[in-house]
């Protein structure tokens, strides 16, 4: 604003200061903020006030701005010019129709430091006659709006949401009223909307305020239904009042929240909000609402031009005004254009939207472009009706280019790609891999890597890096396929389209397991069919056949539990018998030897398909998994098949399994919901149903025929089973003690401490248990932990399929455990009796030290080497030193009163006043309290002498 105009406004406000303070004028308003400094917490606040042009009072006469940290600016028009200029206040005012003026007040403020600040503006008074405030007597009710701003270094620079559509609209009796604030966030943060009550001061709601859907205000909707609606869409921000019954002025308020994802907390954080207090003018009229035609939501690649036609029509053939709002019109560079300039025109009124996008426009959230159409009735006194529509446009970063792969060696693959076009915006390059090729079209809003494609993120690298060597369990004979994606940093974020795919296949010079299929499900007589290929591409000159194979079996999906040499054979198939295939999955590995009986190499491990289920009301949910080197998500063979018994109408045929359905796992994943839809026969809740799932997989290698067919175990489950299983019993070894009603064990890991440093603090406990699986349907176990063992303090820390669990990441061994059984219907047993592990305390002190400043043995310090003599699990130390003669206390130290307790003591040979003590012998007493359950080990008292040698 020029100096002449600014001076005019200041003088005008000062001249009007003598007008009575209780005159009425304010209709609506809001406060927004933008940070204007990268080196300080300086913000520019914009207070927008909408006022009644019929009032003689100027906006801000007596208004108070409170910045929420002790700084308040009051009576902006009542102070002197110097005060106003020191506050950097700018004013602008213009008429926007409907007997309403818009005043924009800009003021700058610098905050002292991070925090959450409530910035408010309060002024006397609202305009009179607001029907839902004090029954229309609103002239003495203050107007108050608030904006909450969170300044957090961990969440980067921030500005509040910006509102672009004025909050004064007219509506008709009996017609649905809508409003949209046209909000956008300059930082690309997520916005959410909710209604709130009107305020008249900080934390004080307007007395006598009535919501617009209160029966005293209205009871009908436009369609004749009831009750009335008064709501705001939490995502789009469209405010709806359906419908007013009485002509007059009404006020309502809502807030626009901004949320940002935090990589520190791993969730979305509320940054603050803007409150809009708005006014609605309702009149009696005979008019139909105009309509908008806008394009479907879309994505566009950065660098392309987006063009569209926006059309406004009116069923009454009235002229229409089409307007466009949103952050895209404020961008720099390349703001969007909307032509011709909005004005009332004959309908249909077409406008051209055009936006030349560039890489700086990339962000995770779509841009929200709001369009508003208003009609112009032939009666000049009739109110205009409006309609809103929002167009969501996502600007997507271009795909990385030039991705190529090559075999680096027998266990690694080299990737290279071009420099990325958007590297100046500091994205990271994410590298994805899958087994076998998967074709998809990375465009039309198909961002990044689509769900169900089977690609897994294996690494990410800085954007300036254009090569990568994959050594992540790369195995011969597997066709590894890669794509890369650029991921842009928060707060704007954004994911590029995926690159083209590149694949590399290392020669098959080891056996490749192709089948781990359950042939028979049983607790003791289960059978597994295992098949593998020979090393088809091995150099037979270096490694002459015939080959001998050793088949190794393990329990579970991974690990070495239950390692068993099953067979040694020259064949490539084997049926493994005598297994518990009902309760345990197994995985296998093949080792092979050449004709000279030299061990050459081994295959990848591969597990059986493990089926789990959840019993629901007249339905069953199935899930299955397998840890295999091939892929079970194959585009050429995308279906897995569901077999079930009891498919007859009476559900009595237990032994006959029928194919009931298939699952396209590339779309739906490894999950199936059975409610009997396949034959329109609901499942009964009083009987068991049994299932087998057949999977299809591939290595993507032409030398290994596809598909690879494998069956899960047979799994039986009863729908709507509500009978909980038996509770487990934790195994208790010899030597346990009962202390205060708890079973306490010395940690079996105490002996390991001798090999661990004094600073070690990553402890673990392992417990095992037994469970009587009466119904044969225990699926897993929940493990609960409490540091104290007190009732009500146990929390869930893990779930295990096996009857054992290792609790890691503990600060000590001390703690108590309880275990429950969980069946396939998610019924949970009661908790087992608690069993506790105790700490193994240790503390040792020397009898000589030499405080001479040579850096060796300078303090009286608890032993910290060798490791077996470290202080362990100390809770508190009371240390006192006495003179040799008379027992006078000359020094004391307590960790209980220390800000940073030193459990080593580290006494430097000075008395309590800081004076060096002479050489000689002194007596000390140390009472050490340990963090243990066992009271016999809780306290250790040391009484001994110590010699100071200087």
UniProtKB/TrEMBL annotation:
Keyword match Signal:
yes
User: Which keywords are on file for this protein?
Assistant: Signal
| InterPro entries referenced in this protein's UniProt entry, alphabetically | FN3_sf, Ig-like_fold
Q: Where is the signal peptide?
A: 1-23
The answer to whether keyword Magnesium applies is: no
Q: Name one Pfam family in it.
A: CHU_C
This protein is called Fibronectin type-III domain-containing protein
């Amino acid at each position: 604003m020029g100096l002449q105009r600014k001076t005019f406004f200041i003088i005008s406000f000062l001249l009007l200061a003598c007008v009575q303070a209780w005159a009425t004028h304010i209709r609506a308003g809001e406060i927004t903020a933008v940070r204007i400094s990268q080196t300080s917490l300086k913000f520019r606040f914009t207070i927008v006030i909408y006022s009644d042009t019929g009032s003689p009072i100027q906006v801000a006469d007596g208004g108070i701005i409170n910045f929420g940290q002790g700084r308040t600016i009051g009576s902006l028009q009542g102070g002197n010019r110097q005060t106003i200029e020191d506050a950097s206040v700018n004013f602008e005012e213009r008429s926007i129709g409907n007997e309403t003026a818009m005043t924009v007040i800009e003021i700058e403020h610098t905050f002292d430091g991070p925090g959450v600040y409530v910035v408010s503006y309060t002024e006397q008074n609202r305009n009179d006659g607001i029907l839902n405030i004090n029954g229309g007597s609103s002239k003495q009710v203050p107007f108050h709006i608030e904006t909450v701003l969170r300044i957090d270094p961990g969440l980067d620079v921030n500005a509040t949401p910006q509102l672009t559509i004025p909050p004064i609209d007219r509506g008709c009796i009996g017609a649905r009223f809508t409003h949209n604030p046209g909000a956008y966030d300059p930082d690309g943060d997520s916005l959410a909307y909710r209604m709130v009550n009107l305020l008249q001061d900080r934390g004080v709601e307007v007395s006598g305020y009535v919501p617009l859907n209160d029966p005293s205000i209205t009871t009908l909707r436009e369609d004749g239904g009831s009750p009335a609606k008064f709501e705001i869409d939490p995502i789009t921000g469209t405010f709806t009042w359906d419908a007013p019954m009485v002509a007059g002025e009404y006020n309502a308020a809502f807030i626009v929240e901004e949320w940002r994802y935090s990589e520190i907390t791993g969730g979305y954080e509320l940054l603050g909000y803007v409150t809009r207090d708005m006014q609605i003018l309702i009149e009696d009229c005979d008019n139909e609402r105009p309509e908008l035609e806008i394009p479907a939501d879309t994505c566009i690649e950065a660098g392309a031009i987006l063009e569209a036609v926006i059309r406004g029509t009116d069923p009454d053939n009235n002229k229409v005004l089409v307007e466009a709002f949103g952050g895209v019109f404020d961008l720099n560079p390349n703001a969007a254009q909307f032509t011709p300039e909005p004005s009332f025109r004959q309908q249909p009124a077409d406008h051209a939207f055009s936006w030349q996008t560039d890489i700086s426009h990339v962000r995770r959230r779509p841009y929200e472009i709001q369009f508003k159409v208003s009609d112009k009735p032939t009666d000049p006194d009739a109110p205009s009706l409006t309609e809103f529509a929002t167009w969501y446009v996502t600007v997507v970063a271009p795909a990385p280019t030039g991705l190529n792969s090559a075999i680096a060696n027998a266990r690694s693959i080299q990737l290279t790609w071009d420099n990325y076009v958007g590297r100046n915006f500091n994205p990271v390059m994410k590298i994805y891999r899958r087994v076998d090729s998967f074709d998809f079209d990375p465009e039309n809003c198909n961002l990044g890597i689509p769900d169900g494609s089977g690609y897994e993120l294996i690494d990410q690298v800085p954007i300036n890096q254009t090569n990568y060597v994959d050594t992540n369990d790369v195995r011969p004979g597997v066709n590894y396929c890669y794509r890369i994606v650029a991921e842009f940093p928060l707060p704007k974020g954004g994911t590029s389209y995926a690159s083209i795919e590149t694949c590399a296949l290392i020669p098959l010079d080891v056996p490749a397991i192709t089948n781990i299929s359950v042939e028979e499900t049983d607790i003791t007589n289960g059978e597994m069919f295992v098949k593998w290929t020979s090393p088809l591409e091995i150099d037979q000159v270096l490694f002459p056949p015939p080959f001998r194979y050793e088949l190794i079996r393990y329990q579970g999906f991974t690990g070495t539990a239950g390692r068993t040499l099953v067979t040694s054979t020259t064949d490539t198939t084997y049926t493994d018998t005598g297994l518990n295939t009902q309760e345990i999955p197994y995985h296998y590995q093949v080792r092979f030897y050449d004709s000279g009986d030299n061990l050459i190499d081994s295959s990848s491990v591969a597990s059986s398909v493990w089926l789990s289920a959840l019993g629901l009301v007249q339905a069953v949910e199935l899930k299955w998994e397998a840890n295999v080197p091939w892929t079970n998500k194959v585009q050429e063979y995308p279906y897995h098949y569901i077999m079930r018994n009891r498919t007859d109408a009476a559900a009595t045929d237990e032994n006959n399994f029928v194919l009931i359905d298939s699952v396209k796992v590339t779309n739906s994943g490894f999950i199936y919901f059975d409610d009997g839809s396949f034959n329109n026969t609901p499942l009964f809740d009083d009987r068991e149903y049994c299932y087998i799932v057949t999977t299809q997989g591939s290595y993507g290698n032409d030398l290994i025929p596809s598909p690879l067919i494998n069956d899960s175990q047979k799994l039986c489950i009863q729908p709507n089973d509500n009978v909980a299983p038996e509770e487990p019993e934790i195994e208790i070894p010899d030597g346990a003690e009962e202390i205060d009603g708890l079973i306490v064990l010395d940690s079996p890991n105490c002996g390991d401490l001798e090999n661990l440093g004094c600073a070690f603090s990553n402890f673990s406990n392992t417990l095992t248990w037994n469970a009587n699986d009466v119904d044969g349907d225990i699926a897993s176990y929940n493990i609960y932990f409490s540091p104290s063992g007190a009732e009500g303090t146990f929390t869930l820390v893990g779930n295990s399929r096996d009857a054992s669990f290792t609790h890691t990441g503990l600060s000590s061994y001390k703690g108590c455990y309880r275990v429950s059984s969980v069946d396939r219907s998610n019924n949970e047993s009661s908790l087992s009796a608690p069993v506790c592990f105790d700490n193994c305390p240790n503390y040792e002190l020397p009898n000589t030290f030499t405080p001479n400043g040579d850096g060796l043995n300078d303090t009286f310090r608890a032993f910290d080497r060798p490791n077996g003599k470290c202080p362990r699990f100390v809770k508190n130390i009371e240390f006192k030193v006495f003179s040799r003669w008379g027992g006078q206390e000359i020094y004391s130290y307590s960790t209980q009163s220390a800000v940073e307790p030193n459990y080593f003591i580290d006494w430097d040979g000075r008395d309590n006043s800081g004076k060096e003590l002479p050489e000689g012998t002194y007596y000390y007493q140390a009472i050490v309290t340990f963090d243990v359950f066992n009271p016999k080990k809780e306290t250790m008292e040391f009484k001994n002498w110590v010699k100071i040698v200087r």
